Automatic annotation (TrEMBL):
Pfam (any one): Methylase_S
Gene Ontology molecular function, alphabetical: endonuclease activity
Type I restriction modification DNA specificity domain ranges (all copies): 290-455
Coiled coil: 457-531
InterPro entries: Restrct_endonuc_typeI_TRD, Restrct_endonuc_typeI_TRD_sf, Type-I_RE_S_subunit
Keyword Hydrolase annotated: yes
Family to which the UniProt record says this protein belongs: Belongs to the type-I restriction system S methylase family.
Protein's recorded name: Restriction endonuclease subunit S
PANTHER family, per database record: TYPE I RESTRICTION ENZYME ECOKI SPECIFICITY SUBUNIT, TYPE-1 RESTRICTION ENZYME ECOKI SPECIFICITY PROTEIN
């Protein structure tokens, strides 16, 4: 730890904590298996989740219901003024519930939390909380954790008790807390403005897509090119011809594979006959489409739509890339953090689902409705969280992908989602997804205009993200100055931190003696009762 100003001290955190919880300075919570025991909503007890803890405040509804057949542990009920810190997992979360917005009257700590209290007469709880949120403290806590990312990282009582913290004079602590809260308040206003701007960009993006797929974005263009445009019925006829041609080719290939299989003595599995696309009819979402447009289902403009494997494969360090929902975002496939499977397993999986160049991928579980177009002939396999849509020419895949994104992320998309705890989309609903179809030429024009607008929106969103990250850097800069004595002025008349620590040590010793005496008295009473019997 760096050199501190005059009047400050460095001490293990245990030296400033009050033995508040049954004589303990640090107490851990409890994690019953709430999800496996359905119970009545009349239960008043819940277990606070670690995700509820943010910097100084709590998120409403972030708790699990305690089953009625389990007896609550009142000794770990969360109270105002507790300092809570997560003690498991890679991320450190810390907060003081000065105002716990409880969705249940009573909340217990999770087993992944510690709670503790500072001696408030000599030490400002908010001063301690702010230090625990600093980058310096976070790094120190990370170094104290045992285990690994795979087996789980844990912070033990013993190690945490030795965390070194800076102690400023009591009055200076208050000045620091007041100044930090003032600066954080201004910073939070700026962050809120940036988040509002980001939300407005998302709204504008959806409005732009709505305008595009109702035919309004290219209304003037369509009038100027009316004599050159193919009708949707003609387009669908071309698509059906392409589908039949592809299916016939697949059928011919299959017959040759069967002949070879029979010639080889029918060893192994018989080649599977190709499946025709399941054509699903649908209804229009928009009543006032242009006359030159029509509504078709996703299955009407594609080959057979299927998702990836429903079995978790065996991952290897190198091999064929294996894509799941987490790898699809920003209208693209990210191959940066993919897992790998063997070539042999990949060959088996693509018999069911074989994504090729021009296909549209849709996330159907996890974060729903993210889309991407396969841009090249790269080999990869898919997990069940992703659906593969082989779009048929002359349809333009980019046009289809953006409209699928728009439809799923509107009110209609919410109506077809299934599940409670985990939301997902069924393939049957995806096949019936209604799309507004226009001529290929107009599809191209819409894609050009959307790409131009999206490029600008993406640039603005990146700028907002950069500024949000800068805000977090600024927050840490404020904390660094605060705990190096550079944020507020020092007052030589303040009682030095060394005196505070002495007073805390004396009070802790007195409390320990009192507890010892009480236990001795309780033993005497117990012995006397036993002697009488």
């Amino acid at each position: 730890m760096r050199e501190l100003p005059v009047g400050w001290e460095i001490t293990p955190i245990a030296n400033v904590l009050e033995p508040k919880y049954e004589g303990k300075t640090i107490q851990q919570g409890w994690s019953p298996r709430c999800e496996k025991h359905p119970s009545s909503c009349n239960n008043t007890w819940g277990v606070l989740k670690t995700t509820a803890i943010q910097a100084g405040y709590f998120i409403e509804n972030e708790n699990k219901e305690l089953p009625e057949h389990l007896t609550p542990k009142e000794q770990i009920e969360v109270s105002e003024g507790d300092i809570l810190l997560t003690c498991a997992g890679p991320r450190n979360r810390c907060g003081v519930p000065t105002l716990v917005r409880k969705t249940r009257p009573k909340l217990m700590m999770s087993g992944k939390m510690y709670r503790f209290r500072a001696f408030e007469e000599y030490f400002q709880p908010s001063f301690l909380e702010l230090y625990l949120l600093s980058h310096e403290a976070q790094l120190a806590i990370d170094k104290m954790k045992t285990g690994s990312s795979d087996s789980g990282l844990n912070l033990t009582h013993g190690r945490f008790r030795e965390l070194l913290i800076p102690v400023a004079p009591f009055k200076e602590q208050q000045r620091i807390v007041d100044k930090v809260e003032e600066l954080f308040s201004e910073l939070d206003k700026g962050i809120e403005s940036l988040k509002t701007a980001k939300a407005q960009l998302a709204v504008y993006r959806q409005a732009l897509l709505k305008h595009a797929f109702e035919g309004k974005l290219t209304e003037e263009w369509r009038k100027d090119n009316a004599d050159k445009l193919e009708s949707p019925e003609q387009l669908l006829q071309h698509i059906q011809q392409e589908r039949e041609a592809r299916y016939q080719q697949q059928l011919d290939d299959w017959k040759q594979e069967v002949e070879k299989w029979e010639a080889d003595g029918k060893g192994g599995k018989k080649p599977q006959k190709p499946r025709k696309a399941q054509i699903k009819q649908t209804e229009a979402l928009v009543d006032d489409l242009p006359n030159e447009w029509a509504v078709y289902s996703l299955s009407e403009i594609s080959e057979h739509i299927v998702d990836g494997t429903h079995k978790t494969p065996k991952y290897v360090s190198e091999g064929v890339k294996f894509i799941s929902a987490k790898d699809i975002f920003g209208f693209r496939i990210s191959f940066e953090n993919t897992r790998f499977i063997t070539e042999e397993e990949h060959k088996e999986l693509i018999k069911r689902c074989n994504p090729k160049k021009g296909n549209v991928l849709i996330t159907k579980s996890g974060t729903l409705g993210r889309v991407a177009v396969v841009k090249d002939e790269s080999e990869f396999s898919l997990f069940e969280s992703v659906a593969n849509v082989p779009v048929l020419p002359p349809m333009i895949s980019e046009f289809v992908s953006k409209q699928v994104y728009y439809v799923i992320n509107t009110g209609f998309g919410a109506s077809i989602q299934k599940g409670v705890a985990v939301r997902h989309l069924h393939l049957e609903d995806l096949r019936k997804l209604p799309l507004s179809i226009c001529s290929v030429e107009e599809q191209q024009e819409i894609c050009l205009r959307l790409d131009s607008e999206f490029t600008l929106l993406d640039s603005l969103e990146r700028e907002l993200e950069v500024n949000l990250r800068k805000c977090e850097v600024l927050r840490q800069s404020i904390l660094k100055k605060a705990f190096s004595g550079q944020l507020v002025s020092q007052d030589p008349n303040d009682e030095p931190a060394s005196e505070l620590l002495k007073k805390i040590a004396i009070e802790k010793a007195e409390l320990a003696e009192k507890e010892k005496a009480e236990k001795a008295a309780a033993r005497k009473v117990k012995a006397a009762k036993k002697a009488k019997t």
